Amino acid sequence: MKKALFPILSLLLLSPCVVAQKLFPYPEIPDSIDNLYDRSNYFVTHFWDKCDIKTALKSPERLDSAFRDYVTLMPHATADTVFAAVDRLYDDIVKNPDAVVTFGRMAEGALYDNTAEYWSDELYLKFIEPVIANKRVKAADKLRFERQARILSKSQEGMTAPALPYVTREGARHDLKDQAAEFVIIFFNDPDCDECAMIKLRLDADVKATALQEAGRLKIVSISPLEAEDEWRSKVSGYPSAWEVGATPEADNVYDLRQTPSIYLLDRNHRILAKNLSLDVLLHTLGAIK
Fold it and tell me: Whole-model pTM?
């Protein structure tokens, strides 16, 4: 993620000196608005005022760059302002299915993919729901967005982690919903993934993680989004014996696994405390548990 750049980028985008190089004139914020948050609200609200969408669509790379400038200021604006701005944008292009799909795809790149400046499930859903709902958009153009929306609508932070049946390395049939502890780590991984192997080693060697497991306060569940075949069982045979290790090809149809590996942290009620965690953040979080 590139959140550290936001303050610098925000100041640059809010400065009138960069306007001339853009695809269309960006909003000129009144001098009377003198703080970052109100200026961001104004910028987001009026961003597309001077943009001819039909003309802009002919320059897809420059339009995508402008869209990224647009969403870069959103973390500094209020949620109601941002959502109202997105609604207004789609109201303006609702009769142009090519524009609707284009904006959905730009949102995917800016808010969902690994190319994103930052990830925001709530904001991304706000951008793709109008694509899905638009009757002028072809069904084939909606498929990917529909799948993403279906998964994100059930696997956001703060939600209860969805049930997920799987087969263990011993051949038993278990379900994630039955794995109970004060804290539950779901480690979605592929045994052929080098980064996954590194995380497995470090997590297994972490003193605090081991202590929490021995005290019965932490459960680590390793899930591979694969069939539980003999080859898979052989590859995970060396995984820590204290871990619950399973596999199911349905994992990425239920959970948001846009990256591999993917780590979720749940509380005792299986509420998703955090997802897409880096190992360093996870270990720091475990270290803070009293």
Answer: 0.87
